[in-house]
Input
Amino acid sequence: MALEKPYLDVPGTTIFDSDNARKGYHLNQFCMSLMKEENRKRFKADEQVYLNEWPMSEDQKRAVLDRDYNAMIALGGNIYFLAKIFSTDGKSFQYAASLMTGMAEEHYKAMMVSGGRSPDGNRYTGEKK
Output
């Protein structure tokens, strides 16, 4: 019997639930491996070779190589694990979030400093206002 998941109805939001955790397990484990300096060095020396050591899907590997964080999330990545990738690249969380929203980093920062994005459109599609 399929579990009902009304929380999946939030526009523009990928929920990291047990299904995504299973789908992204190896992607997220790869990310955690980057906590060790020797693994970061190996990854940066030859990203494809290092990625091939992990039983990730080819789509997951391509998303990592392309630094397509939205694709990684859609493929089961958790943002807190993915942070290990952009940290390895010397990038900030703010930088990655701006990429994911399609905003220039300075515009993303200004939005967040001014109170964040509007809650309009961030409700369940079926939710009454």
Summary: The mean pLDDT is 88. Residues 82 and 110 are 23 Å apart (CA to CA).
